[in-house]
Amino acid sequence: MGGGGTAFEPNTDPPPQPPPQPDTANPSGADDTGSASAADDTGSVATDADGGPPDGSDDTGVVIEGTGYNRGDVAFNLTATDQAGLPFSLHNRYGSKVALVVGNLDVGTTRDTLSNLSDIASGHSDVSFVALIGRDALGVQCNQACAATVQSTYGFSPVLWEPAASMAEFNAWAQAQNTRTYLIDSTMVIDWTKNGTANGSQVDDKLDDLD
User: Fold this and answer.
1) Which of 44, 75, 92, 109 is the most buried (most CB within 10 A)?
2) In what order do the strands lie in the sheet with 79-82?
3) Is there a cis peptide before residue 158, judged by omega within 30 degrees of 0?
4) What is the spatial distance between Cα 86 and Cα 70, in angstroms, rounded to a whole number?
5) What is the pTM of this model?
6) Domain extent listing, the chain
7) What sign does the CA torsion over 135, 66, 151, 108 have?
8) CATH T-level fold of 79-209
């Protein structure tokens, strides 16, 4: 046979085996805990056990430890409700001077003191004039309407009252008096107290010297 080459033999080898199937339950040996990465998956901000910031975190608030109700004491934190129905905290006034009248309106010494301090208030714009009223003019426990009337009559703001029948805050601050006045400096130290009627000129001078 002329001009012919050698014929190719047909490939009779069997086809190659397909590669092994991966383990679909745990491909590539990956961790099967359900966490996509090493990152914390809690999705929460670190907190202390009581729900606050972790121990040792910075606290930007001023911590005030009350010691008493007399001159030279650090004032306890008076908490009550004001004439608008809003909560009041004395320690939130840290950095400001406070003139506080605690009294019963059915007693003349309280009305006189409120009137006397109202007369000098305009000369002390750096002082918060606050009143805590126990009983109204009829001898009934003061409520929001009573506090609003005192505010509009004497110009004190805020005027405070207690919803609780026990009037625990009033009794603590009144110190068994029908009228008691406190002058509290900007660091919450009680600088001066007066039982009964507080004279306007005397309070005026004391406020001039109050830090």
Assistant:
1) 75
2) 87-89, 79-82, 159-161, 127-133, 97-103, 179-184, 190-195
3) yes
4) 27
5) 0.72
6) 79-209
7) positive
8) Glutaredoxin (3.40.30)
